[in-house]
Amino acid sequence: MIRKFAVILIAILAVGNGALQPMEFPHTAVLKEDVYVLYWKTEGDNIIFETQVRTTGYVGLGISPNGGMANADIAIGWVKDGRAYITDYHAKKNGPPSLDKSQDVEILGGSENTTHTILRFRRKLRGCEEKDNSITNGTARVIWAYNHVDPASHTSIPRYHGTNRGTKSIHLVSPEESVPVVDISTVTTLEFLNDKIPVPSKHTTYMCNGFKIPEFNTKLHMIKVEPVIQAGHKPLVHHIVVYGCYHELNTTLYHGARWECPSRNRPPQMGQCRSPIITWAIGGEAFHFPDHVGFPFGGNEDPKFVVMETHYDNPGLRNDYVDSSGLKITLTSKLRQNDAGIIETGKMVTRRHLIPPYSSAFHSWGHCPSQCLSEAMANQTAGIKVYATLLHMHLLGSAIHMRHIRNGTELPWISYDDNYDFNFQEVHKLGKEITVLPTDDIVTDCTYDSSSKTYITTGGLSTKEEMCLGYVYYYPKINLGACETVGIPANYIQVGGFKNITLKGNNPFNPVVGDQGYENMEWQSILADRIDWTNETIRERFQTIERDTANFVRCDLLGKFSISRTPVPALTFDLAYSPPQVNCSTVTGNATTVVDADVPPTVVDVTLPIATTVVDTDVPPTVVDVTLPIATTVVDTDVPPTVVGVPLPIATTVVDTDVPLTGGTVRISLCWGIVFLFTAAHVLIA
Q1: How many CB atoms lie within 10 A of CB 465?
Q2: For 504, phi and psi rounded to 5 degrees?
Q3: How far is the C-alpha of 596 from the C-alpha of 616, rounded, in Å?
Q4: Residue 584 binned pLDDT confidence (cut-offs 50, 70, 90)
Q5: 93, 417, 442, 457: which could join 368 in a potential S-S bond, CB 3.0 to 4.6 Å?
Q6: Contact (Cβ atoms closer than 8 angstroms) between residue 131 and residue 98
Q7: 106 exposed, middle or buried (CB, 10 Å; 0-12, 13-18, 19+)?
Q8: Core vs surface per residue 364-383: b (16+ CB within 10 A) or e
Q9: pLDDT exceeds 90 at position 277
Q10: What pLDDT is attached to residue 19?
Q11: Which pLDDT tens digit goes with each residue over 422-431?
């Protein structure tokens, strides 16, 4: 026989508390100066937040796919009469959020004085509901808001926050970073700064400066890099890359030289300065090398001269920018255990990198093949250790994965970002160092959303063009600066199904079509003007060509630019990596939620934990042989309760009423101060 009981829809958790117990948070972000500070830490599958906000009203914090309210996962909390409250909301569009039936945020405490509200709460990194936005190793678009008034109740829509809101891109899942203690007597600093450069009134400018490295009496290690961005120029300076020059040149002659790069005005000897040794991009802050790693300067094999490349992004075409931004590095004579290096991987930056229009998820692959890695690691057969990465695309980029292939099997990704933000590109330290062997392959997999475009986008330096790059921070240092592939237009042109194709000068970079109506047309013109990219079949065919055809390889040993003229076949492997999935069927641990469903879920032989939420469903769920937890309320609103095969826990309340409870609310207060507010849900017991 089936009996109906009303049980536990927890719309909100309230915690009675005094002062919060101290907790160490390794990560901090100022969301609004002097108003809103966010602290956080990860613990296993959970993340704990603490917000400290200048308000005595409610505080909101959310995870958004795009930095706006639409499709955001939002927690709203407040403190009233000494109790801290938290409520889980979601927003379908820009506007007032809706209360989640599944309350997946757990309040841990809070306090309020005459000026500030402090809230501490916990949520899962990965949610089980469609409305839950997961927090991963990539960029999180954090949205925040506050109001000076508390909500009227836990079910009411909070008052509009007005202008008290904002968004910030953050790496929420990052290793806990401790800055190594450095003996200041061993330290020296260098600055590479632009010298009052008049920035041209055009969208994109790359400016290069040459710097002679001072002569040191001994080898040093670079242990810190920090941006020096001129006041008011943060939106202007998009990224800075410093390249080491490993060849012989007149360092005194070129020190202070300045030129727009690339251009014909570049000093001839500067063309060989291609090995990146420092990278920084917009949104990045100071970078501290791990305490066992440093980049070498001053040794016989180390660069004596560097070229700093600054990318200025000036979409407003302003003509009044005069810039002196750059980088400051810290070096120490107390050498660390390992010399560090950087390898540029991905797709070589050329106009042969093509992205068709009308595609919401077009993939480009840049391949660093084992042939190149093996040559560079000839004396390092144990491989290299990767400890950080910088992933780089332009405006169309939506996701990027640095993939790792060994013996035909894909290993877990070295690094990835499923929510890429062009305006937030920070060197990301890995939680665990990853070994790359000489026989491994690295694939930089870039995803682009060109659905708003009506024409082909090519690779290039301009912000309106695209890139697909991954910078690998590693040790010990090997003889390699760049390991990339470049597409072959003679392959791309096959998307049109042409049969009569010739190569000018036998050069696969210059195919010409001779079919009727296309006589003597070069590949760029055909792909740009003669292909119907609105045709989904054409776009899919081009995606297949990008994935499956051979590429030329750029394998730059230090001081030597080299592109192979023998194509490397597209990489194939038997087993692709699939990240672990959230096990939403497991109902164990504290503060677990059985999720809302449109059809009745069945929970069998489950021991439910302390502070468990069984959420309202459109039809009753079936629960069989369930051990209910401490502080559980079973309320029967229709007929007297019959509990069959259900061991009830300590501090359980069973209430029988022939009519609904007045107000529809039941409170159970335990000695540790947890209060559950309930509205009706249904559980069927066989």
Answers
A1: 19
A2: -65, 125
A3: 6
A4: low
A5: 442
A6: no
A7: buried
A8: bbbbbbbbbbebbbeeeeeb
A9: yes
A10: 60
A11: 988 889 999 8
Sign for the CA dihedral angle at 29, 31, 35, 38 comes to: negative
CA angle 302, 300, 327 (to 5 degrees): 25
Sign of the alpha-carbon torsion through 199, 200, 206, 209: negative
Amino acid in the structure at residue 74: I
State CA 181 to chain mean position distance.
29
Using DSSP's 3-state secondary structure scheme, residue 469 falls into strand
Which pLDDT tens digit goes with each residue over 377-417? 999 999 999 999 999 999 999 999 999 999 999 999 999 99
Which position has the token pair 């640095």?
402
d(CA 276, CA 614): 54
Contacts of 622-630 with C-beta under 8 Å, sequence gap 24+, read: 622/684, 622/686, 623/683, 623/684, 623/685, 624/685, 624/686, 628/652, 630/670
Enumerate the β-bridge partners of residue 110.
Answer: 119
Tokens of 60: 């909101």
Tell me the helices (H) and strands (E) count for the chain, helix number first. 5, 49
Taking only the tens place, the pLDDT of each residue in 542-576 is 999 999 989 999 999 876 777 777 888 888 877 78
Q: What is the per-residue burial (b if ≥16 Cβ within 10 Å, else e) of 52-89?
A: bbebbbbbbbbbbeebebebbbbbbbbbeeebbbbbbb
Where do the DSSP E strands lie in 539-619?
A: 552-556, 593-594, 602-604, 613-614
If phi > 0 it is left, if psi is from -120 to 50 it is alpha, else beta; for residue 584 that is alpha
Residue pLDDT, tens place only, 326-354:
999 999 999 999 999 999 999 999 999 99
Show which residues are catalytic: 206, 392
Given pLDDT bands bounded at 50, 70 and 90, which one contains residue 583? low
Residues 421, 140: Cα–Cα separation, whole Å: 9
CB 442 within 8 A of CB 406: no
